[in-house]
Design brief:
The protein is mainly alpha-helical. The chain has helices spanning 11-21, 26-29, 34-42, 47-59, 86-95, 111-114, 120-128; strands spanning 74-78, 100-104. Helix 5 (86-95) links the parallel strand 1 (74-78) and strand 2.
């Protein structure tokens, strides 16, 4: 269910998939679509673009180059993300020199959309830091 774009073409499939993609969202648990999800129904992804995204996720890795990054980096992750395990964020933060890892407790895959207040202060502090 999480790998198919069918949820963006069918309101019922989208509602059924939300608790799996957004476990940190109260609206998803209640079966409400929310503004972002509703907008996706009006502008679903193109099949080819979605296929390329799945291909990139399955077969691409930036691990060999992460140690070369020199810009300040903030890695954000939800600890209840069913799509991207928390260990991926930890791996990124460990490999990028000086990276800061911030874990959103109870955050799902879309915590930036569902609960932006959970990271606003962290992002602001990071961006204001010299």
């Amino acid at each position: 269910m999480l790998a198919t774009p069918a949820r963006y073409y069918n309101r019922r499939l989208l509602a059924l998939s939300l608790p799996h993609r957004r476990p940190g969202s109260h609206g998803a648990r209640a079966g409400r679509l929310g503004a972002h999800a509703g907008e996706r129904l009006g502008r679903p992804p193109e099949a080819l673009g979605y296929a390329f995204q799945l291909y990139a996720v399955a077969g691409s890795s930036s691990l060999p180059w992460l140690e070369r990054l020199r810009q300040p980096t903030l890695v954000l992750a939800g600890d209840r993300d069913p799509s991207v395990p928390l260990r991926n964020a930890r791996s990124l933060a460990e490999r990028i020199p000086g990276a800061i890892l911030h874990v959103v407790s109870g955050g799902g895959h879309l915590f930036l959309l569902d609960e932006p207040e959970s990271v606003i202060e962290t992002i602001g502090t990071f961006l204001d830091d010299d």
